[in-house]
Design a protein that fits this description.
The chain is α/β, with parallel strands linked by helices. Helix content is 36%, strand content 18%.
Length: 391
């Protein structure tokens, strides 16, 4: 019996590698003879750089930058990726190449977890620190940049990151606008940096969702509330992003409104397209490629994946969706083990999942679940193994 465990992190509770280890322990508790391989996953959000470093032999480079609020300074870091290293030493691997590269995880500079709940306000939060990390990696000599953009505290359309790299956003009177999503409606003119020989290398953005910039499924309406926006603020942010898109199209000739992934990280996906000429790709696809997941599934009887909360958003560019797609191509049944789930058993069957387990018992508080998350996850994995792997 061969089982591959490819878990995402349980935000605020467990890192992806810890989650994988807990699931492996639960399976082996029920079936000691099983072969259980672990492959920690990420989707472009928190943990992406860690997973890629593990797969490529990279290293962390520290940098102090602006936090999600302009008055904050945070000790952040980015991943430095050596030339030609990858899982299995594959020279054609996405993260391999003739020169070094760097992976910037925006959450370490502009992420929601850096703020207290009372500080969350996407009208004011900025991606400026993320731009500073990109600038630092480029100055160090990175020949290629990857930008993982999940977990943001921002809805500024990437304007803050662009400001850090020399872009100017001006109002009707040609005055610079300030930081945050609340300033977007004031932008009347966009000015690119003057050429100075310090152009950024090619940037690939790793997205954790496929939402567009604007509309019912856009950055403001879907993600604004979790970043502290009330209904009035959501409306202001939607108007601001739409206005920014209009100016981008007029001044830069790019329509970023409905590009899949443009709404990721409060519109940083759109900003990267517009200001950095970046390309967008699924973050989980990049991590699966880096870790060699598809090769690991060869001969597997099951793959187990999951995250803290399994819901309909999990099916839009998240780890569960990516792993399930690779498993489908490989003909391997999929089990999802999540902290909680809003997906019914009927919906799970419709999605082609072979099993669905929830680790957190009903009635426990968040604090109780957080304190027992690893034990609860191992127990859920043991239940899955007894019910399905013993068949």
């Amino acid at each position: 019996m061969k089982v591959v465990v490819a878990m995402d992190s349980f935000k605020g509770s467990l890192r992806a590698d810890t989650a994988c280890t807990a699931v492996r322990a639960g399976i082996l508790d029920a079936l000691p003879e099983a072969e259980v391989l672990v492959s920690p996953m990420a989707d472009g959000g928190e943990g992406t750089a860690e997973a890629v470093i593990a797969a490529t032999g990279g290293a962390w480079i520290p940098a102090q930058v602006m936090g999600p609020l302009p008055e904050m300074r945070v000790q952040a870091r980015y991943a430095w990726l050596p030339a030609g290293r990858s899982a299995g030493e594959d020279p054609n691997h996405r993260f391999a190449g003739d020169g070094t590269g760097a992976l910037v995880e925006m959450a370490v500079a502009s992420g929601l977890e850096l703020l207290e709940e009372s500080e969350r306000n996407p009208l004011q939060t900025t991606t400026f620190g993320t731009g500073e990390l990109l600038a630092a990696a480029a100055a160090r000599g990175a020949g290629r940049l990857w930008l993982a953009i999940g977990g943001s505290a921002t809805v500024d359309g990437g304007t803050g990151a662009a400001m850090a790299l020399g872009w100017r956003f001006l109002d009707e009177r040609r005055r610079p606008v300030g930081f945050g999503g609340g300033e977007l409606e004031l932008i009347a003119h966009i000015r690119a940096p003057k050429p100075d020989g310090r152009a950024l290398p090619q940037i690939t953005v790793l997205c954790d969702v496929d939402n567009p910039l604007v509309g019912e499924e856009g950055a403001a309406r879907v993600f604004g509330p979790q970043k502290g926006a009330d209904p009035e603020m959501v409306l202001a942010l939607e108007h601001g992003l739409a206005a920014l898109a209009d100016v981008i199209e007029r001044d830069l000739g790019k329509d970023v409104r409905y590009v899949p992934g443009a709404g990721a990280a409060g519109g940083l996906g759109a900003g990267a397209l517009a200001f950095f000429d970046a390309d967008l790709m699924s973050g989980v696809d990049a991590v699966m490629e880096a870790t060699g997941l598809e090769q690991a599934l060869s001969g597997a009887d099951w793959v187990v994946t999951g995250e803290g909360r399994f819901d309909e958003q999990s099916l839009r560019g998240k780890v569960v969706a990516g792993v399930a797609e690779v498993a489908r191509r490989s003909g391997v049944p999929v089990a999802v083990i999540a902290g909680s789930s809003t997906i019914s058993p009927e919906r799970a069957a419709e999605l082609g999942l072979g099993a669905l387990e929830v680790s957190a018992p009903a009635g426990l508080s968040f604090e109780e679940i957080e304190g027992q998350a690893e034990v609860l996850l191992a127990e859920a994995a043991r239940r899955f193994a007894v019910a399905r792997l013993g068949e």
